[in-house]
Protein backbone atom coordinates (compact mmCIF):
# COMPACT_ATOMS: atom_id res chain seq x y z
CA UNK A 1 0.00 0.00 0.00
CA UNK A 2 1.36 3.39 -0.95
CA UNK A 3 0.22 6.97 -1.08
CA UNK A 4 -0.80 8.78 -4.24
CA UNK A 5 1.43 11.43 -5.69
CA UNK A 6 -0.56 14.10 -3.85
CA UNK A 7 -0.06 12.48 -0.45
CA UNK A 8 -2.97 11.31 1.70
CA UNK A 9 -6.15 12.65 0.06
CA UNK A 10 -9.21 13.89 1.90
CA UNK A 11 -12.23 11.62 1.61
CA UNK A 12 -14.98 11.65 0.39
CA UNK A 13 -13.87 13.05 -2.96
CA UNK A 14 -15.59 15.89 -4.77
CA UNK A 15 -17.42 15.41 -8.05
CA UNK A 16 -15.91 17.69 -10.73
CA UNK A 17 -19.35 18.23 -12.28
CA UNK A 18 -22.90 16.98 -11.78
CA UNK A 19 -23.27 13.32 -12.80
CA UNK A 20 -19.48 13.00 -13.28
CA UNK A 21 -17.55 10.68 -10.92
CA UNK A 22 -14.58 11.89 -8.89
CA UNK A 23 -11.35 11.78 -10.88
CA UNK A 24 -9.72 9.96 -7.97
CA UNK A 25 -11.74 6.79 -8.58
CA UNK A 26 -9.99 5.89 -11.83
CA UNK A 27 -6.64 7.27 -10.69
CA UNK A 28 -6.59 5.18 -7.52
CA UNK A 29 -7.85 2.01 -9.22
CA UNK A 30 -4.96 2.36 -11.67
CA UNK A 31 -2.14 3.48 -9.37
CA UNK A 32 -3.11 2.76 -5.75
CA UNK A 33 -6.28 0.67 -5.33
CA UNK A 34 -5.57 0.21 -1.62
CA UNK A 35 -4.93 3.75 -0.48
CA UNK A 36 -4.79 5.69 2.75
CA UNK A 37 -7.31 8.53 3.02
CA UNK A 38 -8.17 11.19 5.58
CA UNK A 39 -11.78 11.23 6.80
CA UNK A 40 -13.85 14.29 7.78
CA UNK A 41 -13.01 13.52 11.42
CA UNK A 42 -9.31 13.90 10.66
CA UNK A 43 -8.69 10.19 11.30
CA UNK A 44 -7.08 8.01 8.64
CA UNK A 45 -8.56 4.94 6.98
CA UNK A 46 -7.86 2.69 4.00
CA UNK A 47 -9.94 3.11 0.84
CA UNK A 48 -10.67 0.24 -1.58
CA UNK A 49 -11.62 1.25 -5.14
CA UNK A 50 -11.19 -1.98 -7.12
CA UNK A 51 -14.19 -4.28 -7.66
CA UNK A 52 -12.57 -7.53 -6.59
CA UNK A 53 -11.11 -6.01 -3.41
CA UNK A 54 -14.36 -4.35 -2.36
CA UNK A 55 -16.34 -7.51 -3.01
CA UNK A 56 -13.85 -9.67 -1.08
CA UNK A 57 -14.10 -7.56 2.05
CA UNK A 58 -17.87 -7.14 1.92
CA UNK A 59 -18.33 -10.90 1.56
CA UNK A 60 -16.17 -11.63 4.60
CA UNK A 61 -18.53 -12.03 7.60
CA UNK A 62 -15.70 -11.41 10.07
CA UNK A 63 -15.72 -7.69 9.37
CA UNK A 64 -18.69 -5.46 10.12
CA UNK A 65 -19.29 -1.74 10.05
CA UNK A 66 -19.36 -1.56 13.83
CA UNK A 67 -16.85 1.17 14.56
CA UNK A 68 -16.96 1.20 18.34
CA UNK A 69 -13.46 -0.17 18.94
CA UNK A 70 -11.11 2.30 20.58
CA UNK A 71 -8.72 2.25 17.63
CA UNK A 72 -11.42 2.48 14.94
CA UNK A 73 -11.40 5.59 12.80
CA UNK A 74 -14.19 8.06 13.44
CA UNK A 75 -16.06 8.89 10.25
CA UNK A 76 -17.22 12.35 11.30
CA UNK A 77 -15.94 14.66 13.98
CA UNK A 78 -18.96 13.96 16.18
CA UNK A 79 -18.35 10.21 16.07
CA UNK A 80 -22.06 9.59 15.52
CA UNK A 81 -22.02 7.53 12.32
CA UNK A 82 -22.04 3.71 12.26
CA UNK A 83 -21.94 3.40 16.01
CA UNK A 84 -25.23 3.23 17.90
CA UNK A 85 -27.49 0.76 16.05
CA UNK A 86 -24.67 -1.28 14.55
CA UNK A 87 -23.03 -1.81 17.93
CA UNK A 88 -26.17 -3.60 19.15
CA UNK A 89 -27.10 -5.52 16.00
CA UNK A 90 -23.96 -7.49 15.28
CA UNK A 91 -22.34 -10.86 15.88
CA UNK A 92 -24.51 -14.01 15.93
CA UNK A 93 -27.65 -11.93 16.52
CA UNK A 94 -27.25 -10.15 13.19
CA UNK A 95 -28.36 -13.13 11.08
CA UNK A 96 -31.41 -13.64 13.28
CA UNK A 97 -32.19 -9.92 13.12
CA UNK A 98 -32.05 -10.02 9.30
CA UNK A 99 -34.42 -12.98 9.27
CA UNK A 100 -36.92 -11.20 11.50
CA UNK A 101 -36.77 -7.83 9.75
CA UNK A 102 -36.66 -9.46 6.32
CA UNK A 103 -40.34 -10.32 6.74
CA UNK A 104 -41.16 -6.79 5.57
CA UNK A 105 -39.07 -7.11 2.43
CA UNK A 106 -39.87 -10.57 1.07
CA UNK A 107 -40.41 -10.85 -2.67
CA UNK A 108 -44.05 -11.75 -2.01
CA UNK A 109 -44.68 -8.70 0.17
CA UNK A 110 -42.96 -6.37 -2.28
CA UNK A 111 -44.91 -7.93 -5.18
CA UNK A 112 -48.15 -7.31 -3.29
CA UNK A 113 -47.13 -3.68 -2.79
CA UNK A 114 -46.16 -3.09 -6.43
CA UNK A 115 -49.62 -2.13 -7.77
CA UNK A 116 -50.01 0.38 -4.95
CA UNK A 117 -46.52 1.71 -5.67
CA UNK A 118 -47.36 2.29 -9.32
CA UNK A 119 -50.68 3.90 -8.40
CA UNK A 120 -48.97 6.23 -5.92
CA UNK A 121 -46.25 7.12 -8.43
CA UNK A 122 -48.96 7.90 -10.99
CA UNK A 123 -50.86 10.01 -8.48
CA UNK A 124 -47.78 12.04 -7.57
CA UNK A 125 -46.91 12.59 -11.24
CA UNK A 126 -50.48 13.66 -12.01
CA UNK A 127 -50.35 16.12 -9.13
CA UNK A 128 -47.05 17.49 -10.42
CA UNK A 129 -48.58 17.92 -13.87
CA UNK A 130 -51.63 19.63 -12.39
CA UNK A 131 -49.41 22.22 -10.71
CA UNK A 132 -47.59 22.78 -14.00
CA UNK A 133 -43.95 23.06 -15.10
CA UNK A 134 -41.29 23.66 -14.14
CA UNK A 135 -41.31 21.33 -11.17
CA UNK A 136 -38.75 19.95 -8.75
CA UNK A 137 -38.99 16.22 -9.34
CA UNK A 138 -37.07 15.52 -6.12
CA UNK A 139 -39.68 17.30 -3.99
CA UNK A 140 -42.75 16.24 -5.96
CA UNK A 141 -41.95 12.56 -6.62
CA UNK A 142 -38.55 11.28 -5.49
CA UNK A 143 -39.09 12.10 -1.81
CA UNK A 144 -42.79 11.38 -1.15
CA UNK A 145 -42.96 7.98 -2.89
CA UNK A 146 -40.27 6.15 -0.85
CA UNK A 147 -41.53 7.76 2.37
CA UNK A 148 -45.02 6.48 1.63
CA UNK A 149 -43.69 3.00 0.83
CA UNK A 150 -41.55 2.53 3.93
CA UNK A 151 -44.25 4.02 6.14
CA UNK A 152 -46.74 1.55 4.69
CA UNK A 153 -44.47 -1.41 5.46
CA UNK A 154 -43.49 -0.28 8.95
CA UNK A 155 -46.92 1.01 9.90
CA UNK A 156 -45.79 4.62 10.35
CA UNK A 157 -48.27 7.41 9.58
CA UNK A 158 -46.80 9.57 6.81
CA UNK A 159 -48.40 12.77 8.09
CA UNK A 160 -45.04 13.76 9.60
CA UNK A 161 -42.95 12.83 6.55
CA UNK A 162 -41.35 16.27 6.25
CA UNK A 163 -39.93 15.80 9.74
CA UNK A 164 -38.40 12.48 8.66
CA UNK A 165 -36.15 14.25 6.15
CA UNK A 166 -34.54 16.43 8.83
CA UNK A 167 -34.18 13.55 11.28
CA UNK A 168 -32.65 11.41 8.53
CA UNK A 169 -30.20 14.09 7.49
CA UNK A 170 -28.90 14.48 11.03
CA UNK A 171 -28.40 10.71 11.33
CA UNK A 172 -26.45 10.73 8.05
CA UNK A 173 -24.45 13.91 8.64
CA UNK A 174 -20.78 14.02 7.79
CA UNK A 175 -20.25 17.76 8.18
CA UNK A 176 -23.67 19.40 7.73
CA UNK A 177 -24.82 19.51 11.36
CA UNK A 178 -23.21 20.17 14.74
CA UNK A 179 -23.22 17.61 17.54
CA UNK A 180 -25.83 19.69 19.39
CA UNK A 181 -28.13 19.70 16.35
CA UNK A 182 -27.67 15.97 15.85
CA UNK A 183 -28.39 15.16 19.50
CA UNK A 184 -31.50 17.36 19.61
CA UNK A 185 -32.90 15.87 16.40
CA UNK A 186 -32.23 12.32 17.53
CA UNK A 187 -33.93 12.97 20.87
CA UNK A 188 -37.01 14.12 18.91
CA UNK A 189 -36.82 11.11 16.59
CA UNK A 190 -36.45 8.68 19.48
CA UNK A 191 -39.41 10.23 21.32
CA UNK A 192 -41.53 10.00 18.16
CA UNK A 193 -40.69 6.35 17.50
CA UNK A 194 -41.10 5.39 21.17
CA UNK A 195 -44.61 6.86 21.16
CA UNK A 196 -45.40 5.04 17.92
CA UNK A 197 -44.24 1.70 19.33
CA UNK A 198 -46.37 2.26 22.42
CA UNK A 199 -49.37 2.98 20.18
CA UNK A 200 -48.71 -0.20 18.17
CA UNK A 201 -48.53 -2.23 21.37
CA UNK A 202 -51.93 -0.91 22.37
CA UNK A 203 -53.47 -1.34 18.93
CA UNK A 204 -51.43 -3.63 16.63
CA UNK A 205 -51.77 -3.38 12.87
CA UNK A 206 -50.70 -5.31 9.78
CA UNK A 207 -47.15 -4.00 9.70
CA UNK A 208 -43.57 -4.88 10.62
CA UNK A 209 -43.45 -2.98 13.92
CA UNK A 210 -46.57 -4.78 15.16
CA UNK A 211 -45.16 -8.12 13.98
CA UNK A 212 -41.87 -7.57 15.81
CA UNK A 213 -43.60 -6.38 18.97
CA UNK A 214 -45.15 -9.84 19.29
CA UNK A 215 -41.72 -11.42 19.83
CA UNK A 216 -39.93 -8.67 21.79
CA UNK A 217 -38.38 -10.20 24.88
CA UNK A 218 -38.80 -13.83 23.88
CA UNK A 219 -35.81 -15.94 24.84
CA UNK A 220 -35.11 -17.38 21.41
CA UNK A 221 -34.77 -14.11 19.47
CA UNK A 222 -32.76 -11.69 21.56
CA UNK A 223 -34.99 -8.92 20.23
CA UNK A 224 -35.35 -6.24 22.89
CA UNK A 225 -37.53 -3.16 22.71
CA UNK A 226 -34.35 -1.09 22.48
CA UNK A 227 -33.27 -3.03 19.39
CA UNK A 228 -36.78 -2.69 17.94
CA UNK A 229 -36.60 1.08 18.40
CA UNK A 230 -33.21 1.29 16.70
CA UNK A 231 -34.43 -1.02 13.92
CA UNK A 232 -37.51 1.09 13.23
CA UNK A 233 -35.42 4.26 13.14
CA UNK A 234 -32.79 2.71 10.89
CA UNK A 235 -35.30 1.24 8.44
CA UNK A 236 -37.29 4.46 8.24
CA UNK A 237 -34.14 6.40 7.36
CA UNK A 238 -32.57 3.83 5.02
CA UNK A 239 -35.91 2.92 3.49
CA UNK A 240 -36.55 6.35 2.06
CA UNK A 241 -33.30 8.34 2.01
CA UNK A 242 -31.24 6.25 -0.39
CA UNK A 243 -34.12 5.54 -2.78
CA UNK A 244 -35.20 9.19 -2.75
CA UNK A 245 -31.72 10.19 -3.84
CA UNK A 246 -31.45 7.42 -6.41
CA UNK A 247 -34.74 8.34 -8.12
CA UNK A 248 -33.48 11.86 -8.67
CA UNK A 249 -30.08 10.74 -9.93
CA UNK A 250 -31.55 8.06 -12.20
CA UNK A 251 -33.93 10.48 -13.91
CA UNK A 252 -31.17 13.09 -14.22
CA UNK A 253 -28.82 10.56 -15.86
CA UNK A 254 -31.47 9.46 -18.34
CA UNK A 255 -32.46 13.02 -19.26
CA UNK A 256 -28.89 14.33 -19.45
CA UNK A 257 -28.44 12.46 -22.74
CA UNK A 258 -31.70 12.59 -24.67
CA UNK A 259 -30.78 9.45 -26.58
CA UNK A 260 -31.19 7.45 -23.38
CA UNK A 261 -34.71 8.71 -22.74
CA UNK A 262 -35.72 8.18 -26.37
CA UNK A 263 -34.37 4.61 -26.26
CA UNK A 264 -36.61 3.85 -23.29
CA UNK A 265 -39.61 5.43 -24.96
CA UNK A 266 -38.98 3.26 -28.02
CA UNK A 267 -38.54 0.10 -25.95
CA UNK A 268 -40.07 0.23 -22.42
CA UNK A 269 -38.89 -3.35 -21.83
CA UNK A 270 -35.49 -1.79 -21.12
CA UNK A 271 -36.77 -0.31 -17.85
CA UNK A 272 -35.49 -3.22 -15.75
CA UNK A 273 -31.93 -3.18 -17.14
CA UNK A 274 -31.90 0.64 -17.24
CA UNK A 275 -32.60 0.75 -13.50
CA UNK A 276 -29.73 -1.66 -12.82
CA UNK A 277 -27.39 0.34 -15.03
CA UNK A 278 -28.39 3.56 -13.28
CA UNK A 279 -27.42 1.95 -9.98
CA UNK A 280 -24.06 0.86 -11.41
CA UNK A 281 -23.37 4.15 -13.17
CA UNK A 282 -24.19 6.37 -10.19
CA UNK A 283 -21.40 8.95 -9.96
CA UNK A 284 -22.24 10.01 -6.41
CA UNK A 285 -23.58 7.05 -4.42
CA UNK A 286 -22.24 8.41 -1.16
CA UNK A 287 -19.55 7.53 1.33
CA UNK A 288 -19.34 3.76 0.88
CA UNK A 289 -19.33 1.04 3.53
CA UNK A 290 -16.76 1.07 6.34
CA UNK A 291 -15.33 -2.11 7.80
CA UNK A 292 -13.29 -2.52 10.98
CA UNK A 293 -10.61 -5.20 10.84
CA UNK A 294 -10.43 -7.09 14.10
CA UNK A 295 -7.60 -9.22 12.70
CA UNK A 296 -5.02 -9.08 9.92
CA UNK A 297 -6.39 -9.66 6.43
CA UNK A 298 -4.82 -9.79 2.99
CA UNK A 299 -6.56 -7.77 0.30
CA UNK A 300 -5.21 -7.38 -3.21
CA UNK A 301 -1.83 -8.75 -2.19
CA UNK A 302 -1.52 -6.27 0.70
CA UNK A 303 -1.74 -7.29 4.36
CA UNK A 304 -3.91 -4.87 6.31
CA UNK A 305 -3.25 -5.05 10.05
CA UNK A 306 -5.85 -5.54 12.75
CA UNK A 307 -7.22 -2.21 13.91
CA UNK A 308 -7.51 -0.80 10.39
CA UNK A 309 -10.71 0.91 9.31
CA UNK A 310 -11.43 0.22 5.64
CA UNK A 311 -13.85 2.14 3.40
CA UNK A 312 -15.32 0.07 0.56
CA UNK A 313 -16.24 2.37 -2.33
CA UNK A 314 -18.98 0.59 -4.26
CA UNK A 315 -19.23 3.55 -6.62
CA UNK A 316 -15.60 3.26 -7.67
CA UNK A 317 -15.86 -0.54 -7.86
CA UNK A 318 -18.88 -0.28 -10.15
CA UNK A 319 -16.75 1.69 -12.65
CA UNK A 320 -13.93 -0.86 -12.64
CA UNK A 321 -12.82 -1.50 -16.23
CA UNK A 322 -11.56 -4.96 -15.28
CA UNK A 323 -15.08 -6.00 -14.32
CA UNK A 324 -17.33 -4.09 -16.73
CA UNK A 325 -16.91 -3.62 -20.47
CA UNK A 326 -17.33 0.02 -21.43
CA UNK A 327 -17.39 0.81 -17.73
CA UNK A 328 -17.56 4.57 -18.29
CA UNK A 329 -20.56 4.31 -20.59
CA UNK A 330 -24.19 4.03 -19.55
CA UNK A 331 -25.37 0.91 -21.40
CA UNK A 332 -29.13 0.64 -20.89
CA UNK A 333 -29.36 -3.00 -21.93
CA UNK A 334 -26.28 -4.19 -20.02
CA UNK A 335 -26.72 -7.83 -19.05
CA UNK A 336 -25.48 -9.40 -16.98
CA UNK A 337 -24.83 -6.50 -14.62
CA UNK A 338 -23.05 -7.61 -11.45
CA UNK A 339 -22.95 -4.18 -9.82
CA UNK A 340 -22.64 -3.99 -6.05
CA UNK A 341 -24.60 -0.82 -5.41
CA UNK A 342 -26.53 -2.58 -2.64
CA UNK A 343 -23.45 -4.25 -1.23
CA UNK A 344 -22.97 -8.02 -1.16
CA UNK A 345 -22.79 -10.70 1.47
CA UNK A 346 -24.24 -10.88 4.98
CA UNK A 347 -24.64 -7.11 5.33
CA UNK A 348 -26.11 -6.35 1.91
CA UNK A 349 -29.10 -4.01 1.75
CA UNK A 350 -32.21 -5.65 3.17
CA UNK A 351 -34.53 -3.38 1.23
CA UNK A 352 -33.06 -3.76 -2.24
CA UNK A 353 -36.14 -5.53 -3.64
CA UNK A 354 -38.31 -2.65 -2.48
CA UNK A 355 -35.86 -0.06 -3.84
CA UNK A 356 -35.83 -1.77 -7.24
CA UNK A 357 -39.64 -1.91 -7.29
CA UNK A 358 -39.83 1.82 -6.53
CA UNK A 359 -37.27 2.77 -9.17
CA UNK A 360 -38.99 0.68 -11.84
CA UNK A 361 -42.43 2.00 -10.93
CA UNK A 362 -41.25 5.61 -11.13
CA UNK A 363 -39.52 5.11 -14.45
CA UNK A 364 -42.44 3.25 -16.06
CA UNK A 365 -44.95 5.88 -14.94
CA UNK A 366 -42.79 8.80 -16.07
CA UNK A 367 -42.28 7.27 -19.50
CA UNK A 368 -45.99 6.55 -19.83
CA UNK A 369 -47.34 9.84 -18.52
CA UNK A 370 -44.60 12.33 -19.41
CA UNK A 371 -42.82 11.22 -22.60
CA UNK A 372 -41.71 14.83 -23.27
CA UNK A 373 -40.03 15.15 -19.87
CA UNK A 374 -36.75 17.08 -19.95
CA UNK A 375 -34.38 18.96 -17.66
CA UNK A 376 -35.49 22.54 -17.02
CA UNK A 377 -31.91 23.70 -16.41
CA UNK A 378 -28.58 22.79 -18.02
CA UNK A 379 -27.13 19.66 -16.43
CA UNK A 380 -24.14 21.74 -15.30
CA UNK A 381 -26.43 23.68 -12.95
CA UNK A 382 -27.57 20.64 -10.98
CA UNK A 383 -26.09 20.57 -7.48
CA UNK A 384 -25.42 17.71 -5.10
CA UNK A 385 -26.49 17.65 -1.48
CA UNK A 386 -23.44 18.38 0.65
CA UNK A 387 -22.19 17.20 4.01
CA UNK A 388 -24.12 13.90 4.15
CA UNK A 389 -22.99 10.29 3.96
CA UNK A 390 -25.43 9.62 1.11
CA UNK A 391 -25.23 11.20 -2.34
CA UNK A 392 -28.16 12.99 -3.95
CA UNK A 393 -29.30 16.06 -5.83
CA UNK A 394 -30.59 19.12 -4.00
CA UNK A 395 -33.22 19.68 -6.67
CA UNK A 396 -34.11 18.29 -10.09
CA UNK A 397 -35.95 20.99 -12.10
CA UNK A 398 -37.91 19.42 -14.99
CA UNK A 399 -40.51 20.45 -17.56
CA UNK A 400 -42.59 18.70 -20.19
From TrEMBL:
Keyword Aminoacyl-tRNA synthetase: no
Membrane-spanning intervals of the chain: none
Family matches, as CDD domains: Cyp158A-like
Gene Ontology MF annotations: heme binding; iron ion binding; monooxygenase activity; oxidoreductase activity, acting on paired donors, with incorporation or reduction of molecular oxygen
Cofactor: heme
Keywords, ordered alphabetically: Heme, Iron, Metal-binding, Monooxygenase, Oxidoreductase
Pfam families: p450
Family: Belongs to the cytochrome P450 family.
Protein name: Cytochrome P450
Naturally occurring in which organism (per UniProt): Thermopolyspora flexuosa
